[in-house]
Amino acid sequence: MHEKLNGIVLHVLRYSDKNSIVHILTDRCGRMAFLLPQGATKGARLRNAMFMPLSVIEFEAKILPGRDLHTFRDARSTCNLAGLYSDPFKNAVAMFISELLTRSIQESEENIPLFRFIEASIILLNNMETGIANFHIWFLYNLGAFLGIQPDIDTFKEGYWFDMANGIFTQERPIHSHALHPKEAPAILLLSRMTSQNLHLFKFNRTQRGEILDIALSYYRLHNSMIGSLRSPDILKQLFV
What we know:
The protein is of the alpha+beta class. 38% of the residues lie in helices and 22% in strands. The chain has helices at 42-49, 82-86, 88-104, 112-127, 135-147, 186-192, 206-223, 232-239, and strands at residues 2-14, 19-26, 30-37, 56-62, 69-77, 161-163, 168-170, 179-180.
């Protein structure tokens, strides 16, 4: 029996000459893997274009208990994301988000709030005209709330250290090495004040934005060993001045 699902494409991996494997974050079943038929026909090319990273789709899936790889039918796009793929800056941010989500989300469980946040963020990036250079930083910080790793801003005080391992601000320097000096710690508070409406107001230069991104990714790696080394951040650092 087939189930109707909404999904966000995370990653497509070539599996054989006839099939690829597409990893999709679904609204009701979490992350899932599906066989994606390949081919040289016009229909196959149109279908493959529907499975670009971060594409938002609706489809019917045949889910068999105990299997890690499923099949689907009747897939269709539910969002026009032409702006996301035609703009090189937005496309670079999309590639980063896709790589981050592919590494950080492994659960095959329903998480409607997480799905809705990511879906809304994709649409926002597609439509926005200013603040694009800061979007990935805003996304990183706010995604943490849905993954259970967002810093506890209520513990902030001027002159406190930021304990990255525990996500809190402390008066004393933590005994481990994963901490931000009191001179750097206010950057975390600054990130908490970013919203989707005020991104254009944060004026970072290339060096500052790169340092903030490195800190955020270091924080993620502490809390999720699957993140590892990402390729896309280097592209972002080169694009945004």
